Amino acid sequence: MATVVCEIHHAHPFCDWTGFYRVTGPEMLKIGPYQGSHGCLVIPFSRGVCGAAARTGQVQNVPDVDAFPDHIACSSSTRSELVLPVWNGEGTLLGVLDLDSNTPAAFTRADEDWLVPLLAEVFRDAY
C-alpha cells in the first residue's frame, strides 16, 4: 500500500493527499499508508466521501467537496476528491484509496480508468 500511494501521489499532478483507509472493523475505516499532510484517523462507513465509497462499493469522483452531503473536512484546502474501493480477488472490501486535491474537479474518468484495474491487479491476492 505504501508503494502504491507513493507512486500515485508523485505521478498525479493534482494530488495533495493520497492514501488508503483500511477496513479495520465493522463499518469502520482507519488510516493506512499515505502521502501528504495529516489525514483523518478513523472514518465510519456512514460519513463522508470515503465512507460512501466503502458503503456503496462504488467509485466516488467528487469535483466539489463542499457540495457533497456530509463531507468530512480532514483538510480545509481540499476542493475535490476521488475515492476508489479496494477489493481482493475474493470480493472482500479491504479499504478505499483516497485522492484529495486543492484544485476543483481535479480528477477525471481517465483517472478512474487506470486506477480501478491497477488496484484490482495489485490487491487480487491480498487478504
From TrEMBL:
Task: State the InterPro entries in the record.
Answer: GAF (IPR003018), GAF-like_dom_sf (IPR029016)
Matching SUPFAM superfamilies? GAF domain-like (SSF55781)
Output the superkingdom of the source species. Bacteria
- This one is known as GAF domain-containing protein
Domain (GAF) spans 15-115
Which species is this record about? Rhodobacter calidifons
